[in-house]
Design a protein that fits this description.
Blueprint lengths: L5 H7 L1 E16 L6 H11 L10 H19 L3 E3 L6 H10 L6 E21 L5 E21 L3 E8 L6 E6 H11 L4 E4 L2 E5 L2 H9 L3 H12 L8 H5 L5 E15 L2 H15 L5 H7 L15 E5 L2 E8 L2 E8 L3 E8 L14 H23 L5 H8 L2 E3 L2 E3 L7 H12 L9 H12 L8 H13 L3 E3 L6 E3 L1 H23 L12 H19 L8
Parallel strand pairs: 2-3
Antiparallel strand pairs: 1-6, 1-9, 3-4, 4-5, 5-6, 7-8, 9-13, 10-11, 11-12, 12-13, 14-15, 16-17
Length: 537
């Protein structure tokens, strides 16, 4: 086991490797009731009220709460008031342990939480006449958590606000869906907490996870909305006041199960040791595409968090988080959690799930590739020559990327900062960070110089232009070359050479300095025995 690299451990010790949707948190809302004008149209235009007022919302809310209590009595389920600070998932897990039906309502939870509703304010026309105006306002109201068990999806919940416009949240789990499907098909498996430890048919498991799509999720929500209390009438729905799903949060995970705990622990120790520098402020600030100074509020860093004796590695990109940890002493879990789809210029509606899946899974794979290459990034002689010597590409002469050139080393260091950015980088981004790496003002590293450097990187095969954009991505060759040459420079050449000179304060305590001193002494003895003078040497 000792001496194995991350790549070797992943290739030789993994017994199950699957990726799929993990948790999803969805917003269930009325698109026609998100503005004051829409609310006014609902009450005046649809329901025929003379004035749109919050007074009309109260009777609706009272009737809705009564229907929830009637539903609970009819179904024989409890309404449980959550205590302040109580973990709702823990309560649900305890009750789920004694729940035997394949499908049904587990219980209904109640908690008072903040909610964005509407209030009426007074405004004045140009003539000075007052008129009512509906606007958004935050209120405290009861939320009802319907904890449900579905025959296809297993346990999940829908949370409804008890006040107009009755926005809801849906939380489901893709791994629970997969377990249900495996059990239905009679495929033997052993479960992890929120995952699968082993499976008699891994290919089928992956196919099931791939098959969890937007239509299946929409069908699940529609099915249970038809069974649960509804604050809106059939006439409301016929008039077009129907709920719609959008994505608040989506987790995309990759689970790699090891043959034994020792293999996984050794792998994660290697990952953390080699990638702790992912949290340097310069890298994180680049990921967020903003300059970070001592005055910048918030936390912009990659963290290694230890809960008990289990460490986890966290990487951030805007609102998106990538988390990696060793799960239950058996599996490496890599999770990309997208908290804002706008980070990637993608809409929030559920129909955009395929695009988000591609981004989430690509981020997981990219992180693992970078971690693997960062430890085992040796280069073949031909590859080294391709980069460090001049080339002719498409009848164009490409200058060499010499590793003794400060500008080239700075360029490769900056390239390392872009490895995990899903949407690539632009000319302006490389200008900002190259100026910092070279220690010059931003205007001194011009757009022309950036274009010249990008051309060199592209023709050497280290970056590629993303089609139909002005953005670039780092190629697989670029990942390996950038990591290898920057490591050689930062870990060997710069510290090694600095320790060869008396001016280095750490040199006397370094083995290389001691060895060089002994070599000097041995050479002096040899020259003295040979009766060679300094001039003859």
């Amino acid at each position: 086991m000792i001496g194995q690299t991350v790549g070797e451990l992943l290739a030789e010790k993994v017994t199950l490797d699957v990726e799929g949707i993990d948790r999803m948190y969805l917003n269930l809302y009325q698109p026609m009731l998100q503005t004051g004008a829409g609310v006014a149209a609902f009450f005046k235009g649809h329901r025929g009220a003379k004035v749109a007022s919050t007074a009309l919302m109260g009777p609706m809310s009272h009737a809705y709460v009564k229907s929830i209590h009637d539903f609970a009595k009819r179904e024989g389920v409890q309404i449980v008031a959550f205590a302040k600070g109580e973990r709702k998932d823990d309560v649900a897990k305890q009750r789920l342990a004694g729940f035997t039906p394949r499908e049904g309502v587990l219980f209904i939870g109640k908690a008072q939480e903040k909610f964005a509703s509407f209030r009426v304010t007074k405004r004045f026309s140009e003539s000075g006449m007052p008129f009512p105006w509906l606007s958004r306002s935050t209120v405290m109201c009861n939320h009802y958590y319907f904890y449900l068990v579905d025959d296809d999806f297993g346990p999940f919940f829908i949370k409804f606000a008890s006040y107009f416009p009755y926005t809801a949240r849906v939380c489901l789990n893709g791994h629970e869906y997969a377990k249900r499907q495996l059990a239905k098909e009679g495929i033997a498996f052993e479960a992890l907490d929120n995952g699968v430890l082993c499976c008699a048919d891994p290919a089928r498991l992956q196919h099931i996870l791939d098959g969890l799509d937007a239509p299946k999720i929409q069908a699940l929500v529609n099915k249970w909305l038809s069974r649960l209390p509804d604050p809106f009438t059939a006439e409301d729905h016929a008039a077009g006041f129907n709920p719609q799903l959008s994505i608040l949060q989506a987790e995309f995970s990759r689970t790699q199960v090891f043959d034994r705990p020792l293999s996984g622990r050794h792998l994660f120790e290697e990952i953390i040791r080699e990638n702790i520098d992912l949290g340097r402020p310069s890298k994180v600030s680049l990921i967020f595409q903003r300059r970070i100074t001592k005055r910048t509020p918030g936390m912009f860093n990659t963290r290694v968090i230890t809960q008990g004796v289990i460490p986890s590695l966290h990487v951030s990109y805007k609102s998106t988080k990538i988390k990696q940890y060793f799960k239950e002493e058996r599996a490496l879990r890599t999770e990309t959690t997208i908290n804002n789809t706008r980070d990637f210029a993608i809409g929030r509606l559920l129909k955009n799930l395929p695009d988000l899946r591609a981004i989430g899974f690509a981020a997981n794979r990219r992180l693992l590739e970078v971690e693997t290459i960062s430890q085992d990034c040796t280069l073949a002689e031909g590859v080294l020559d391709q980069v460090t010597k001049p080339q002719i590409v498409d009848e164009q002469r490409v200058p060499a990327l010499r590793i003794d050139d400060t500008r080239v080393i700075s360029l490769l260091q900056v390239l390392c900062l872009f490895l995990l950015i899903p949407e690539g980088f632009r000319n302006a981004s490389i200008r900002q960070w190259m100026a910092q790496a070279l220690g010059v003002r931003a205007e001194e590293y011009s757009g022309g110089r950036a274009t010249y450097d990008l051309r060199r990187l592209r023709l050497h095969g280290l970056i590629a232009r993303i089609p139909r954009t002005h953005r670039y991505r780092v190629t697989d060759l670029g990942v390996r070359v950038a990591l290898f040459l920057t490591k050689v420079h930062s870990r060997i050449l710069r510290p090694g050479l600095s320790q060869l000179f008396d001016g280095c304060p750490k040199a006397p305590n370094r083995p290389i300095a001691t060895a060089m001193h002994k070599l000097d002494q041995a050479l002096n003895v040899l020259f003295n025995e040979a009766k060679l003078t300094a001039c003859e040497i």
